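We emphasize that the prediction below concerns an isolated chain of 193 residues; any contacts that depend on oligomerization or on bound cofactors are therefore not represented. The input was used exactly as deposited, without trimming of termini.
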Amino acid sequence: FGNLTQGYATGGTQPVRTSCQKFVYSTTTRTTLPSALTSSRGYIGSIGNNTAGYVGGGTPQSSQGQKLDKMPYSNETFSSLPSLPGSRYRYGTFGNQTQGYFAGGYPSQTNKVKKVTYSNDSYASSPNLSYSATFQTGTGNATKGYVVSGEGGGTKVDRVTFSNDTTARVPSANLSAVRYSLEANNSPTKAYF
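Result of the prediction step, given as a token string:
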């Protein structure tokens, strides 16, 4: 997660971690923050906007899969928010400047989509994905998000329209081959997988 001036990397497995590193784009410097996640976990997802980042879910699943931490960039300090509805890890994230989405994930959220509204840190359910999978990836722009493939998802791509929270399959965007645990990047007009 991050904004136009810096990016953050946190969590991880082998062993599970709480540390967070900051990378400043203009100086190409990396530092470890004094603040850390509120608990050790891996296979997490992250989303954010220009003012704060959110880190959710993760393993060990039994105790961490519903956790959600928030870190405002102004103070770079993590705090715990109320638990996500539904435990998940190995899932996709996407969003815009006002809201973020957690899509899919193991063990029981494989086709579920949850929305976080940044202004009040509230949760809501969005329509389910058209397929069940884990290890999805997400990307998008200011108006739409895309959830791609994943383990068990084949080559499928779903689109979430932010203005009305609708989910639809986009067969014309299907991947050319089955892939999971992939990464995505985007610009205001294109996405790359």
